[in-house]
Design a protein that fits this description.
- The protein is an alpha/beta fold.
- It has one domain: Acetylglutamate kinase-like (Carbamate kinase, 3-Layer(aba) Sandwich), CATH 3.40.1160.10.
- Helix content is 37%, strand content 17%.
- The protein has a 9-stranded mixed β-sheet, sandwiched between helices.
- Bound molecules: uridine-5'-diphosphate (UDP).
- Uridine-5'-diphosphate (UDP) binds next to helix 2, helix 3 and helix 5.
- Its EC number is 2.7.4.22.
């Protein structure tokens, strides 16, 4: 596989929310989404990009919604973490079906189905052009997979976090409610705070800012976007 010298980012951390896997469904995993995401990820791996993925679990279970229904918060959070492992397994299968080498690592030990998270091992996989999926979040309750995405990105020295969503970037207001909402191409961490915009939860966002880790928010449901970002095109919104 030839290394493409024109790539802007050599090593990326792609954050996919659990909800993104639902596609048209109200719950769970839409196989069409898995196939589409796997194809897009293959495109950038084929260009020589090193790809680590953090996957969410909101399509299956969120600790906070469990708590609202009488489930102990910590118990619910662990259920949420396990949901991310289910999503990770589905994505691993989808990526393998595209012919990629994939390693699933978990923050909670489940050794029959995945490797336990070991930073040096993850980096070695990336150097060998294997896709690494980090599931189980951080392995601690009261955190989100956005925090896991930022921490893992810092640990593996990723160039950028690519937050794949259903919207095409960060707007000055909700574009569905406000016709005058403007999309930012670039925005600083400070402006995100001062304008009261939401990119990630605060714990994750602050960690990213403190470590000067840029975040690109983009629409993962438009095939080609991921590749164009790697090639250096201004897709979505860059927070830096
Ligand atoms: N979670 C947790 N610790 C973590 C990551 C996740 O407790 O480090 C739990 C939490 O309950 C969360 C759920 O797992 O609601 C699913 O993750 P998240 O909500 O981040 O998924 P996404 O919104 O990306 O689908």
């Amino acid at each position: 596989m030839l290394q493409n010298k024109k790539m802007k980012y050599q090593r990326v951390l792609l954050k996919l929310s659990g909800e993104a896997l639902m596609g048209e469904k109200q719950y769970g995993i839409d196989p069409k989404q898995i196939i589409s995401y796997s194809q897009q990820i293959k495109e950038i791996v084929d260009k020589g990009c090193e790809v680590a993925i953090v996957i969410g679990g909101g399509n299956i279970f969120r600790g906070i919604s469990g708590a609202a229904n009488g489930i102990d918060r910590v118990q619910g959070d662990y259920m949420g973490m396990l949901a991310t492992v289910i999503n990770g397994m589905a994505l691993q299968q989808g990526l393998e079906d595209e012919g990629l080498d994939v390693r699933l690592q978990t923050a909670i030990e489940i050794k029959q189905i995945a490797e336990t998270y070991i930073r040096r091992r993850a980096i070695r996989h990336l150097e060998k052009k294997r896709v690494v999926i980090f599931s189980g979040g951080l392995g601690n309750p009261y955190f989100t997979t956005d925090s896991a995405a930022v921490l893992r990105a810092i640990e593996i020295e990723a160039d950028v976090i690519l937050k794949g969503t259903r919207v095409d970037g960060i707007y000055s207001a909700d574009p569905e409610k406000d016709k005058n909402a403007e999309k930012f191409t670039n925005i600083s961490f400070k402006d995100v705070y001062s304008k009261g915009l939401k990119v990630m939860d605060m714990t994750a966002f602050t960690l990213s800012e403190e470590n000067q880790l840029p975040i690109i928010v983009f629409d993962m449901n438009t095939p080609g976007n991921l590749r164009e970002i790697i090639e250096g095109k201004d897709i979505g919104t860059l927070v830096s």
